[in-house]
């Protein structure tokens, strides 16, 4: 029996969402699996998502433009401010828009990618742990540092975990690897005019930085010399 979620998501509020695969199986080291999960982040975020998923099931070569047109006929369930897909889990910074929006969005994402991987691998059963984790973001400081935590998270395996204790030694090397990593929203925040169809509602973050360079400085300064503790923002 599924565990009843204690936390009630409230429209207009922000949340850190974290979902891990069963037994930490690194399904998303596979590029196709990671791409399909990324696609789910886009398609699941609409009241017309069922129609969009069905269109793709009927014709996997359906142009993305047509899928987006279907999605835009509906309403968004959540705002996705930033995201990162790791080998065995993913992080999302979300704002609830419609009531039950987050729960329905995550259910659709996880169900979609699980079905894809099960069919591909000729397996059955759940892909993710029984219940995704969530934490209410109750301050602007938390919101900012969570965006930092999510965007730097891939450094755990791209470089090392020194960023977590403010001892990243080569920011330029780390930045290049982060920008080359395709399963994160960091390019949207560091590259001017970079488009990301998944991202919405990012104004609350963007308006706190003069430009992309200032946001980059925020990431770099923290990872190199800040005295805060990143563990306060982690759900792992």
Tally of separate helices: 10
CATH architectural arrangement of the largest domain: 2-Layer Sandwich
Q: Name the CATH homologous superfamily of the largest domain.
A: Transposase IS200-like
Beta-strand level of the residues, as a percent range? 5-15%
- CATH topology grouping of the largest domain: Alpha-Beta Plaits
- The low-confidence parts are none
The helical percent reads 40-55%
Spell out the helices and strands N to C. EHHHEEHEHHHHHH
Q: How confident overall, as mean pLDDT?
A: 91
Calculate Rg over CA atoms: 18 Å
The CATH class of the largest domain, by name, is Alpha Beta
The helix/strand class is: alpha+beta
The largest β sheet comes out as: 4 strands, antiparallel
| Count of all domains | 2
Q: Based on CA inertia axes, which overall geometry fits?
A: globular
Q: N- to C-terminal separation? A: 23 Å
Strand runs, count: 4
Instruction: Tell me the strand order in the biggest sheet.
Output: 2-3-1-4
What attributes does this structure have?
236 residues; Alpha-Beta Plaits; 2 domains; alpha+beta
How is this structure best described in words?
- This protein is of the alpha+beta class.
- The chain folds into two domains: 14-136, Alpha-Beta Plaits (2-Layer Sandwich), CATH 3.30.70; 139-230, no CATH class.
- The chain has ten helices and four strands, in the order βαααββαβαααααα.
- Strands 2-3-1-4 form a four-stranded antiparallel sheet, sandwiched between helices.
- Helix 1 runs antiparallel to helix 4.
- The longest helix has 21 residues, at 101-121.
- The chain is globular.
């Amino acid at each position: 029996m599924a565990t009843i979620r204690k936390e009630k998501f409230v429209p207009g509020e922000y949340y850190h969402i974290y979902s891990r695969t069963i037994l930490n199986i690194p399904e998303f080291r596979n590029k196709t699996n990671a791409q399909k999960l990324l696609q789910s982040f886009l398609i699941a975020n609409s009241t017309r998502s069922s129609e969009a998923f069905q269109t793709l099931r009927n014709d996997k070569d359906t142009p993305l433009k047509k899928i987006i047109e279907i999605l835009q006929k509906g309403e968004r369930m959540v705002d996705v401010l930033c995201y990162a897909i790791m080998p065995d889990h993913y992080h999302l910074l979300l704002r609830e828009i419609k009531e039950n929006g987050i729960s329905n969005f995550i259910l659709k994402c996880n169900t979609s990618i699980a079905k894809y991987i099960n069919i591909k691998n000729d397996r059955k059963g759940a892909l993710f742990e029984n219940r995704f984790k969530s934490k209410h973001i109750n301050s602007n400081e938390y919101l900012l540092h969570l965006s930092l935590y999510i965007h730097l998270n891939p450094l755990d395996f791209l470089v090392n975990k020194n960023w977590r204790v403010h001892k990243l030694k080569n920011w330029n090397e780390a930045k290049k690897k982060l920008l080359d990593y395709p399963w994160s929203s960091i390019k949207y925040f560091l590259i001017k005019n970079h488009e990301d169809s998944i991202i919405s509602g990012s104004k609350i973050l963007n308006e706190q930085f003069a430009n992309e360079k200032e946001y980059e400085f925020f990431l770099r300064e923290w990872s190199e010399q800040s005295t805060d503790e990143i563990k306060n923002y982690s759900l792992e």
